[in-house]
Write a structure and sequence with these properties.
One of its GO terms (cellular component) is membrane. Residues 56-158 form the Cytochrome b5 heme-binding domain. The chain crosses the membrane at residues 12-32. The chain has helices at 18-35, 58-61, 87-90, 105-110, 134-150, 163-168, and strands at residues 54-56, 73-76, 79-82, 152-157. It has a 4-stranded mixed beta sheet. The chain has 6 helices and 4 strands. The protein is an alpha+beta fold. The chain has a domain at 54-168: Flavocytochrome B2, Chain A, domain 1.
Length: 169
């Protein structure tokens, strides 16, 4: 080696090359997009309005037949159910529409959806169902159980003049 020749310069490799900076930027953006909270957080559905347990007489129950944007209620063995979710069945035009806003106990027990199964005198005593046989009572209990599983109990049915009916008016 001659003294006039300079030793070769050592090259230092740097990681800050334009390509590495670009790749790191893309990687950072992808990680951020994956881990950031989503803008559209899952919105909770609006809860239904609270239902107040009420004591109904037959005339008070009658308007709850699904007309005029009213909910659909029906009674079975003195328990009033909100069957509004089943409006297609119990509301106007449905196969069980004549039970809406009424005591449906006898009709359900007898498997009949005719008007003559309903008590005509709404101001009279409630149907005590004493003339029903064991098979009919069992059918009615089955319906009541089905309603209990599927629909909310919103009240109870008492005759006109009953002391509990007077408190809720």
């Amino acid at each position: 080696m001659s003294s006039s020749e300079a030793p070769p310069a050592t090259q230092v490799a740097t990681i800050a090359t334009p390509l590495n900076i670009l790749l790191f930027s893309l990687f950072s953006i992808l990680v951020y997009m994956r881990l950031r909270p989503s803008k559209s957080a899952t919105a909770l559905p609006t809860p239904p309005a609270p239902t107040v347990f009420k004591t109904f007489t037959p005339p008070q129950l009658k308007p709850y037949n699904g007309t005029n944007n009213m909910p659909v209620y029906l009674a079975v063995r003195g328990r009033v159910f909100d069957v509004t979710p089943g409006r297609n069945f119990y509301g106007p035009g449905g196969p069980y529409a004549n039970f809406a806003g009424r005591d449906a106990s006898r009709g359900l027990a007898c498997g009949s959806f005719d008007e003559d199964m309903l008590t005509e005198d709404l101001d009279g005593p409630l149907d005590r169902l004493e003339d029903l046989g064991a098979e009919e009572m069992e059918a009615m209990r089955g319906w009541e159980e089905r309603f209990s599983e599927k629909y909310l109990v919103v009240g109870k049915l008492v005759p006109v003049g009953h002391e509990e009916a007077e408190k809720d008016e």
